[in-house]
Amino acid sequence: MSYRQARYDEPLIFELRGESDFGLECDAPVRLPEGMERQGLDLPDLPEREVVRHYVDLSQMSFGVDNGMYPLGSCTMKYNPKYADRLSSLPTVASVHPCQDEDSIQGALRLMRELEKALCAISGMDAVTLQPAAGAHGEFTGMLIAKAYHARRGQPRTEVIVPDSAHGTNPASAAMAGFTVIEVPSGPDGCIDLEALGAALSERTAAVMVTNPNTLGIFEKDIVELARMVHAAGALLYYDGANLNAIMGMTSPGAMDFDIVHFNLHKTFATPHGGGGPGAGPVGVKEFLEPFLPVPRIVSEEGRFGLDYDRPDSIGKVRSMFGNFAVLVRAYAYILVQGGDGLRDVSQRAVLASNYLKSRVVPPYEMPFAPLRKHEFVVSAKRLAKEKDVHATDVAKALLDRGFMSPTVYFPSLVEEALMIEPTESESKETLDRYAEALREIADGAPEEIRAAPRSTSVARVDEVYAAKELTLSWRIYRQRGLE
Amino acid sequence: MPLDRRMLDELGIGSVEELFSDIPEEVRTDGIPLPPGKSEMEVVRYMQELLSANLTAESAPCFLGGGVYHHFIPSAVGTIVSRSELATSYTPYQAEISQGMLQSLFEYQSYIAELTAMDAVNSSNYDWATALGEAATMCHRILPKRTFLVPEAMCWDKRSVLGNYVSGAALNVVGYCYDPFTGGLDLDDLRSKMTPDVCGIYAEVPNLFGVIDPQVPKLKQEFPDVPLVVGVNPLSLALVRPPGEYGADIVIGEGQPLGLPMNVGGPSLGLFACRMEHVRKMPGRLIGMTRDREGRRAFCMTLQTREQHIRRSKATSNICTNEALLAVAVSVYLGIVGGKGLRAIARLNMRNAAALMERVDELEGFDSPVFEGAHFNEFVVRTPVRPAKLNRLLLRRGIIGGLPLQRHVPRMEDHMLLTATEATSAQAMDRLLAALREVAQ
């Protein structure tokens, strides 16, 4: 399949000239204290038509799941159903102020309470907060809960253990909460090395953060023993929900004896990523940690919903108001459409697609680690790099030329020249076959051709070094340097 | 949806269960205890019905603000952010195929840089409160001391979020008082709290009381060596002197007033800008202008070595997923309204708030505004009836009242923040006034 992206020489909006037709006018004098008046503000005035054309042009130079397969490992880029767009833009969502009297937001409170319960059912946890705005934000919330829990028991703990295959957000979130991060290596099978874990665990360990299946797509085979060890050390077990799409209905964080879990609604529950956000990162906990969840908690009495701020052990707030409500609306709609059985089917299909695609990927791509994979797998382009000087980046760029988003590259770092592929349940066998074929074609291709990719995108290979050297981060800087 | 048997056959397995044989028996679950799935039609109907229990600012006059505002949003904003290519894309790691998203975010950074008169703007934090948390720890990176000064009168949500964000770096958050007459900061009190241990000062323009405080620009003159963080309502910057002109090191704020729906509080958009000299200490994603191999102008993410996926526990922040699409919405909004339009909107906000302020003051039992300072689009009123009760009485009359301030400033149990924007009609004000007259009796 050939692919060609729009290629416009689209000026910056600041370089466009025109006349505004916005129409709203007001010259009323305003009272400002001396020295507080603004002296100048030079923003372009343009007719709506020009602004819309500008951004439509720009949108055509972008690529989303609606354009094609997007197998970014650990990102779960599944298709985003459109009913969710419709529901999240209803005036009863968009035009509601969060500080309205509880009686006037009963719909919002009820929806959030129902979503909390649904997430409990999916994860096997006892209570959920919807406040965190993203996965990493959920991790941070979880770490604050772990800290508060140990402090409440009069045994403050200072360390958090993460495996070397963990997402970067894990150590970053633990560090932000003030913990010292201890990294443990993976064993030859790609799973956490229990001996290394045992050596790292101590009375200083507050929590162990585990992604299961892990970022290699491998289910931690020793999860039962691992949970026992962590709990025997008095530490909490944290579940990074980035890979929840692999296991719904087959097992759950609760069943695996995790104490805290975060969900990525923008992964597992199909809310669009918006080029980086918004997402939502609710956190679920077992009952004994419920008192520590952020305020307010949503409570109900005789069918009326209210907000409870009176929670003395609560960690307080991690975001203003209730969280990313419009994202919650989308995720809840998705859960209702799938239902319990449908969500299990989602995981089964995602794992089937991943294993099928894995079976179609052939040498020179190598598949480090032996075990079965779940929803994603990691391929190494090491041989290709050695034999033809074609690296993971080159493979990624050549895939763009074929109308596919590239996999996640160079992660996890324990695999050299890593290509981390997560096809999700959204893709058909035919698309998966084409992807495998594209990978093969790239491996067989003339190295100089591959290194010259991409050619079909809006621009050719971008110079990231130059960007970091110049640091032109705004029109203001651009103008100051006289680059206009 | 059924499994594709062809894939099972190719894999040579009889059942998909075989692909889950690595999950130990003792942790297996038998499905999910949720009802079966429903059709789109049924779910849309159910959710519409459920959400209809929310009262909207379109059907009832709304005088709430305090960080989230009812503004008019030009239709084109929704049209653009609904474009699938933007909405369903991921973080633009692959720059070549993501130029549109990257340029849109660069334009967002540029717009906020113009408004704040700052150099570097990241392409979003979650919201104002979390941006404040990140700003405090960034101050600590700039100046490794442990006390962060904030206004005592600050939205409680922000105070609580800040407490959590600084807990890791073990910073002390110390509040300074406000001047009971002007509603601005009490400079003497702030001076008394300026110990050698201070790593940063935070001030808001306009502040919680809606007051535009002319003392904030003096802070950098008085304390040149201490990082200054200024929190703004970006809409006010159409008329108010930008913090970059008076030496702010970091500017944060809430982007929601620039064309974003209220969304029951989220998603919204945390603004984060800083001076160039601090850029490597900044949290979040940055888009830079660069060139491609053929010398064409291009954009990409830059200074990624600050970020969690590279630096892990040493990163400037854990943030990954942010609010990028809302940043695009802000660019489109500012594109549509333009410089002239933005000034007009800001003026209308000030004019409507001033009119409301005066009319409320004429009512028996109300003191409006409580503070003498100049206000942007909200102001504090002392009410003859407790604000929470007053709001319930207003609600019965189909009006969404103001923000009770007691949660934020405990001693203000009979104070309420009233807000007017360009979207506040004269009829809405008339209705509020009539209702207030009634309920105050």
Q: What is the fold's blueprint, element by element?
A:
The complex is a heterodimer of chains A (484) and B (441).
Chain A: H1 48-60, H2 83-88, H3 91-94, H4 106-123, E1 127-129, H5 135-152, E2 159-163, H6 169-176, E3 180-184, H7 194-200, E4 205-210, H8 223-232, E5 236-240, E6 260-262, E7 283-285, E8 297-301, E9 304-308, H9 325-360, E10 377-380, H10 382-388, H11 392-401, E11 408-409, E12 418-421, H12 429-444, H13 447-451, H14 464-470, H15 475-480
Parallel strand pairs in A: 2-3, 2-4, 4-5, 5-6
Antiparallel strand pairs in A: 1-7, 6-7, 8-9, 10-12, 11-12
Helix pairs in contact in A: 4-9, 5-6, 9-12
Chain B: H1 5-11, H2 40-51, H3 75-81, H4 84-87, H5 99-116, E1 120-121, H6 128-142, E2 147-151, H7 156-165, E3 172-176, H8 187-192, E4 198-205, H9 219-222, E5 228-232, E6 250-254, E7 270-274, E8 286-291, E9 297-302, H10 308-311, H11 324-361, E10 378-382, H12 387-396, E11 403-404, E12 415-419, H13 426-440
Parallel strand pairs in B: 2-3, 2-4, 4-5, 5-6
Antiparallel strand pairs in B: 1-7, 6-7, 8-9, 10-12, 11-12
Helix pairs in contact in B: 3-11, 5-11, 6-7
